UniProtKB/TrEMBL annotation:
Residues 1-24 form the signal peptide. GO terms for molecular function: structural molecule activity. Pfam families: FlgI (PF02119). The keyword Lyase does not apply. InterPro entries: Flag_FlgI. This is Flagellar P-ring protein. Belongs to the FlgI family. Assembles around the rod to form the L-ring and probably protects the motor/basal body from shearing forces during rotation. Keywords: Bacterial flagellum, Cell projection, Cilium, Flagellum, Periplasm, Signal.
Length: 376
């Protein structure tokens, strides 16, 4: 019953997301805005990284002997603040060395704030209650683009006693919401571009051609000629008309509605038992039989006592019971010209998700699955 509910839910996912079937048995067609299926090549994120210290921990920081880089960093920070640390040695565990990472959003301007993530480098057990000291964040070019500082937010917690320890989540990683201030803007500006390059999030030749056609249809009415050309399955190049403003042009193009197309795929995860079946997946006519053999071995040893006043010894006599059970084995005929028929055919076998995964792999090996099988 749980398997039937799971697969039936897959069949209605398309309708919940706004899919509209072209016909009773035809493929599902999804209409979406260009801004939802593509991103601007010039508008990508940039990764930032930095090394810093977290202070104010309640004895859960790095051991300075086990993490000498934490001790060196703390002494260097104090010397920069004008405090001499020569000849001194600290055994406090309220400081931890961390790596600080962040994503610099496109077109970010100096003065705006972004979130940062901190991860412990040493043997600290928890970052809860700590504060990140001023840390510079650099890009791949070595330039400093942001400076981070602030109180850490840790989602997990850890409690420890003499005989037991309870840990939930990760306590050695934390976030600082709006913890970094952007100090430098990116070298390139949006309006310096001579054209727009749209990158499809799900590369597909059909979708790329449809995006180009929709943009050209709009440009013919607005600017009197085509401006878009699909470069491959992922990129669509849009040339800027001489009389157009690039920002306004992008705002008009990103709201155009396109009918998207995706290849037929079946994604299975054997670890979690998750099965995701695409709307266009089809199965040729095939017969499937699935059965499982369960062998149960039970050990019930018996203790044998010697008779009274005898010189015998107490002995243990082993006793083993073996029982074999075979479930399933029925033959089902599958013919999936559409998603609904395919789900109904798999439900008729009445097996669990792990069994359905094995069946789909067998159907793919037999050449009857007209889709790509992705194993995770």
């Amino acid at each position: 019953m749980r398997t039937r509910f799971f697969l039936t839910t897959l069949a209605v996912i398309g309708s919940l997301l706004g899919s509209v079937p072209a016909s009773a048995d035809g493929p599902y067609i999804v209409s979406a805005r260009i801004k939802d299926i593509a991103s601007l090549q010039a508008g990508r994120d940039n990764q930032l990284i930095g090394y810093g210290l977290v202070v104010g921990l309640q004895g859960t920081g790095d051991s300075l002997r086990s993490s000498p880089f934490t001790d060196q960093s703390m002494k260097a920070m104090l010397q920069n603040l004008g405090i001499s640390t020569q000849g001194s040695q600290s055994n406090a565990k309220n400081v931890a060395a961390v790596m600080v990472t962040a994503n610099l959003p496109p077109f970010a301007s100096p003065g705006s704030r972004i979130d940062v993530t901190t991860s412990s480098l040493g043997d600290a057990t928890s970052l809860r209650g700590g504060t990140l000291v001023m840390t510079s964040l650099s890009g791949a070019d070595g330039q400093i683009y942001a400076v981070a500082q602030g109180a850490l937010v840790v989602s997990g917690f850890s409690a420890q006693g003499q005989a037991a320890t309870l840990t939930e989540g990760v306590t050695t990683a934390a976030r600082v919401p709006n913890g970094a201030i952007i100090e430098r803007e990116l070298p390139s500006k949006f309006k310096d571009s001579v054209n727009l390059v749209l990158q499809l999030r799900n590369p597909d030749f059909s979708t790329a051609v449809r995006v180009s056609d929709i943009v050209n249809s709009f440009a013919a009415r607005r600017y009197g000629g085509p401006i878009a050309e699909p470069r491959d399955s992922q990129e669509v190049v849009i040339e800027k008309p001489k009389s157009a403003d690039l920002t306004r042009l992008m705002a008009e193009i990103e709201n155009l509605v396109v009918e998207t197309d995706t290849p037929a795929k079946v994604v299975v995860n054997e670890r979690t038992g998750t099965i995701v079946i695409g709307a266009d997946v089809k199965i040729s006519r095939v017969a499937v039989s699935y059965g499982t053999l369960t062998v149960q071995v039970t050990e019930t040893p018996q203790v044998i006592q010697p008779e009274p006043f005898s010189r015998g010894e107490t002995a243990v006599q082993p006793q083993t019971d073996i029982m074999a059970m075979k479930n399933g084995g029925q033959v089902a005929l599958l013919n999936g010209p559409d998603l609904r028929t395919l789900v109904a055919g798999l439900n008729s076998i009445g097996v669990k998700p792990d069994g359905i995964i094995a069946i789909l792999q067998g159907i793919k090996s037999a050449g009857a699955l007209q889709a790509e099988l992705v194993l995770q």
